[in-house]
Amino acid sequence: MRRTRAAAWPAYAILALILVAGLYLRLRHNGYGLPYVYNQDEGRHFTNRAVAMFGGGSWDPGYYENPSGFTYLLNIAMRFRYGHGWPFGGFDNVVRMFASPDPSGVYELTRGVAALLCCAGAAGVFFVGRRLWGLREGLVAAAVLAFAFLPVAYSRIAVTDVGTLLPVAIALFAAVRIYERGDLRWYLVGGAAVGFAIGFKYTAGLVLLPLLIATAFRMRTDGLAPLKGLGIALVVATAAFFVTTPYFFINFSHARHQLTSQSQTVGDFGKVGQAQDNGFAYYLWSLTWGLGWVPLVAAAAGCFLVARRDPVRALLLAAFPLALFIYLSVQSRFFGRWLLPVYPALALFAGYAIVQAVGAVAALRGRRLAAAGALAAVVLAALAQPLAADVRTMRLLGRTDTRQLARDYLVKTYPPRLRIVIEPAVPGRYYRLARPGRKAPPERKQFVRGFIRDIGETRIDYVTLLRPEVLDHYRRSGYCLVMTMSVIRGRAENDRLAPALAYYARLERESKLVFEASPYDKGVKHLKFNFDHSYDYYPSKFARPGPDVKIYRLNNCKQGYGPLPKGAGVPQGVSE
């Protein structure tokens, strides 16, 4: 036993190295963009609701389109961070900090929680791979998950998706153990893992499918007895989900209404500018860069190899990824990170295939050091694509966002209370008057927006409301400056929205371009808008974060300042 443990220590040292490197890739420059949060989901759904629990005196987030497990974790992290280790004191300081012109510290903390959750998922995959096959398979699987681009990209912002990785890995392992052993404890473990997975992402509930399949196979030998274990697993899953999202049950009618509305939107209405209409092709494409070409091929090979050795084990590990892939592909909206919960299973298959491939080389048999060196070389080669993207985007995020460059130009060039049309790709905080070391009255604004508000679905619908005649309203109201962004204009270009394209054409004809901030190096051809790559910056053409930002000054227009007079007209078709 001592010799076995001694032999395992190098593997744990390598695992620690993988996790530290993965954490560094996520935390380096994790204050990018701040104090402005440009990702709409990060800005609207989790951190702000975790802070609101301090000011409102209630644990009800009032929001159920996503489970609240991640929100509660953020609140707990704030309690320890800002309570100096005592989580039950007053936290007015957190509320004040978040309401201040610069809440960067709060967001850096919550982004750090997401990074830790993702690395915990990689550690969980290691332990599952080790128990299923061996130390090497576990290490390779952990490396695949730790450095795959999509898990890295979405653990740099405070969103819930990466929280599913650890419980999904545990649920898959529990399903295998239920099939192979049938012990009651694995029903308990599996049920808890399923419940916690749902507590981070509702769609992760499909990970219950492997437990159902495992139970069905156990019934072939044990009769109806496994149904008792399944019933217990369902009860435990419900309890675990209740712990993460209690107000889903307490305010069930409200939660059901929100969830139904969201499901109808995702299932029935495509995004303006989405361009793709085939979910199966889209999600397969997302895996080629989100996981990487070589890890993806290795995952497919691993599934085949496991199936040759143990078809039921392969089925249990593959059922959830396949089910979620099909479910997401038949929706009307597609987004790469929605497939993140399947990454633990893909990493496990890839780890198994890579180790088997290296072990099959006859010249390495019996030569442990040579085999270990060869395995390390193969893993580095397999991860070259995602690692290059991880490092490239890590460096890129250390540079100033184009929207910040545009704001700096406006603040330097124009006095406060400037009337300007800014397309809805910035948060409300962007408009505030922010002067270092000075507290500005809340009613004072750096920029005044009379036509466009970045709330609700406005960002998605905005380009469908644009018409050339809107420019005449801008002139009459003293809004002589118009700031456009490629993440908004690109939607109109993808869908060939004629009125919006005519609006942009007239804007260019009847104005002067006074400022441009590009995310690309000089001379690089601009990329077509994409809902994934325009925000995660995966393409190597990106040199800094942000969209292509242009500021136009309308000809024959008298620049105005301050809010519009009460009752002033708003152009029909454009949200105020």
Question: How would you classify the helix and strand content by structural class?
Answer: mainly alpha
Helix content: 55-70%
N-to-C span = 71 Å
Mean pLDDT level = 88
What's the β-strand tally? Answer: 5
Number of helices: 25
Q: What is the C-alpha radius of gyration, as a whole number of Å?
A: 26 Å
Strand order in space, largest sheet: 2-1-3-5-4
Shape: globular
Largest sheet: 5 strands, mixed
Beta-strand proportion: under 5%
Low-confidence stretches: 453-458
User: What order do the helices and strands follow?
Assistant: HHHHHHHHHHHHHHHHHHHHEEHHEHHEHE
Question: Care to give the gist of this entry?
Answer:
The protein has 576 residues and is mainly α. It has helices spanning 2-27, 40-45, 47-56, 69-82, 92-99, 104-132, 135-147, 149-153, 165-180, 184-200, 208-222, 225-244, 247-250, 252-268, 279-309, 311-329, 343-359, 368-382, 384-396, 402-413, 458-461, 470-476, 486-495, 498-509, 533-536, and strands at residues 418-422, 447-448, 481-485, 511-517, 549-554.
